[in-house]
Amino acid sequence: MKIVSPGLLVALLTSPGAAAAGPAGGPGLPPHRFALIVAENEPQGGALTPLRYADDDGLRYAEFLRGTGAEVELLTVLDDETQRRAPGAAAGTRPPTRGELAAAMARLNAGIERARSAGLTVDFYFVFAGHGEAGPNGEGRMHLRDGTLSRADLLSLVVAPSKADFNHLVIDACHAQALVFNRGPAGADDGYRPDDYRNAIARYLDAQDLRAFPNTGAILASTAGRETHEWEVFGAGIFSHEVRSGLAGVADVNGDGAVEYSELAAYVSAANDAIVDPAARPQIVFQPPARDRNRPLLAYTDGPSSFLRIPRGFTGRAWLEDARGNRYADFHGSGEAPIVVALADAPFYFLRRDQDEARIDPPRPGVVDEARLSWRRREVATRGALNETFETKLFSRPFGPAFYAGYVSSAGHVPAIAQSTPTLPVTAETSLTLGETGGRFGVWPHVTAGAALVLGGLATWQGLAAMDDHDRFSRALTETGVGDRALADRIEREQAMAWGFGAAGLATAGAAALLYLLEARDGGDVAVAPAPGGLVAGGRF
Fold this sequence. Notes:
single chain, alpha/beta, Rossmann fold, seven-stranded mixed β-sheet, five-stranded antiparallel β-sheet, 13 helices, 24 strands, 34% helix
């Protein structure tokens, strides 16, 4: 799902589902995905303040995972603001109650069994966005519409019944111990210090609970104190926005088209690395499935058919906003490697950087290269009230292979491995219409190659004409003993033109080869598949 150059590619796969198999998806097949997403703004009781964007996070998680082909159950109640921004979205939701959770799990498990009986590997996602707290016995619990869901309930009602090959838990919740952490205001200070969280959570994850489920991984976030960790600029919870950004491709540090736990954790850590206030800085804790610690959270090459490519050398903070005005993904390029972002099914996007922006009209299927976008000065400043800490510190640390290597080494985690080399689902017809694609030299490598072919053809034509006229001259000289002076002059002209066209063709072919080489070395767009450390070139002339 990486990059394609217009004119270079003649034929690629023609449907989004035709991409190469994702990790562990079975022979020739990506893993099938199911997801249960629970999002609740309203807390139980009066000690906690209602959240504003948990329902938005739930909806965006659902849209994102459906874009990868997942079958999704969304339990949430969308508020008026969200329903105005996304008309019709509420029709696909159910309220986040214990009864609906159990019914949703039953429906998902039925689908999981059908998929597994068909020989498919299955990944199951449980995502929670909302309030959490520590109960009277110190056990973490999450707030639903009709009560709470304890840590034991989560394991017994969701994790244990799951019939999937692998389970992935993504928890973005309020202040709680062990499994559920601070997202919104806490009712009272329980005395936790910032450095308590990582050790406490790690002990919990490594103790009796998840050890019983070696096919289950989790990525969780928490902060100390009672600061809110939703942000109006994102229109979402900060951790949830970072998770979706990373899963869209920007956390894929080795370029294999999949995001592993360690890659996502390193990306989220880099995004928050410059925040020094312990009350505002999330503490990220993750544990991949013990059965396979390199099991990806998601292969973002599965499903989406449109992509944005950021070439190697791009540095600085940038973000994507979709047609509804939603912040889609944020990143801070280190310039070390290309970045590829899977684009959801929106009619257009804006890529923004500092005070400039570029409109993206994604081809479907197709790839848009940032190097060929038309940048302009932004007409409207970023909307909403900005928190100075988040505005200046979030995503201020560049993320790339160097940061990832240091993160994994210092923490002693299992490093990511190259999972696969999926092929972009881009057709030749689409690639020829990508007016905004191309590397540093745009279409010139292809134009130069075409000119070399034309010059070679002209040289061949003139050479054949000179040979034909020479035969005529020789026959006339043999028969009459007199040479045709005009014909001799034409033969000389034809030979000179053949040599001239030939020399020009060779020079032009050499220039084309040099441009293609420089394009590839510069991280250009002649590649069609991701590979560790870069891109693999493909296609044919």
